[in-house]
Design brief:
4% strand; 327 residues; single chain
Length: 327
């Protein structure tokens, strides 16, 4: 079988897993780009490249060409996609073995959490200023903006998880409500929410009914919508959060490479500071491994800071301070 046909069958099999469109697009892109590199190395058009030609030498050379202008993270993502694809080809009898064992995989340093910078007050500043109407726009909607930010900060949900929420996602008795979240790989988790966020959601839904002249909303309706009452999308969510940062005056506290995700890091970091365990963070964040939750604990644990504070060098340094500087 030719490579494009096998890739199409593989992508079709992934759709049965109910992966997000964003994830599927990532698989398709990585398969296409590395396939193009493999065809270049083999000296044939990609549409004529046979799956059986994908030996270790060819795939390794294709990845070397693919990797040259790209980051380790991009190469790792493509490596994973191709490993799954070629495992699929073996299972379908198109290949005798998976050649990815012959392809080196770059090592990536562990990623440090990237909460909002500063003394820990940035999230409070953000909520207070947006609630006070700091975000100016052609069609301001304070209640909606506040719910978006608050949900991210009290649940740690990913962007895609926030956008997939419906009114029916919220259940339970008043004072004991929970949100059902569909995470990566279709895995669900139930997140507790407390009365303050319940009240914000109620105020937001009331404002939504009044804004659009509605009397009721079905449980299947998207929880978060734009100013036309259409489900909020990824680009709209990113723009909304970016503008909130700017108008709240904390845009300089958002670390490079984060936007909505900074709120998720903020959630986890502040919980870790207050004693949440790595296992608890894993459950709340929807991680498949405890290792990621451990990163937050390791970077913020009070015991670690206390141990560091006991370093006798601090006593020496304190004695070196000019007397006028001492409290």
């Amino acid at each position: 079988m030719r490579l494009p046909e096998a890739a199409a069958e593989f992508l079709s099999s992934l759709r049965a897993k109910k992966l997000s469109p964003h994830t599927l697009a990532g698989y398709e892109r990585d398969l296409r780009l590395v396939a193009g590199a493999a065809a270049d190395v083999a000296g044939v058009p990609v549409e004529d490249l046979e799956v059986r030609a994908l030996g270790g030498r060819l795939v390794r050379a294709a990845f070397a060409e693919f990797a040259e202008p790209r980051s380790a993270a991009s190469v790792n993502r493509a490596w994973s996609a191709w490993n799954q694809f070629l495992t699929f080809c073996v299972a379908e009898g198109m290949l005798e073995g998976n050649p990815m064992a012959a392809v080196p995989r770059p090592k990536q340093p562990a990623k440090a959490p990237k909460p909002l910078l500063g003394d820990g007050s940035a999230s409070a500043t953000l909520l207070e200023r947006i609630a006070a109407g700091a975000r100016e726009s052609r069609d301001p909607w304070v209640e909606r903006d506040l719910v978006v930010l608050a949900l991210a900060l009290v649940t740690g949900m990913r962007s895609a998880e926030l956008l997939s929420l419906t009114l029916g996602s919220i259940g339970g008795a008043e004072g004991d409500r929970r949100i059902q979240v569909v995470g990566k790989g279709g895995k669900t988790r139930s997140l507790p929410i407390e009365p303050p966020i319940e009240h914000l959601i109620d105020a937001y839904l009331s404002s939504r009914l009044g804004r659009f002249g509605l009397t009721t909303l079905p449980r299947s309706a998207a929880l978060l919508v734009d100013t036309r009452n259409e489900p909020l999308r990824r680009g709209g969510l990113q723009y909304l959060v970016r503008e909130c940062y700017r108008y709240a005056g904390i845009h300089d506290r958002v670390q490079k490479g984060t936007l909505v995700h900074a709120l998720r890091h903020e959630f986890a970091t502040r919980l870790a500071e207050r004693g949440a365990s790595a296992h608890e963070l894993m459950e709340l964040l929807g991680h498949s491994s405890i290792v990621t939750g451990q990163a937050y604990v390791a970077s913020t644990a009070r015991e670690v800071r206390g141990a560091a504070r006991a370093n006798p060098a601090y006593g020496v340094l304190e004695g070196l301070r000019p007397s006028g500087d001492r409290p």
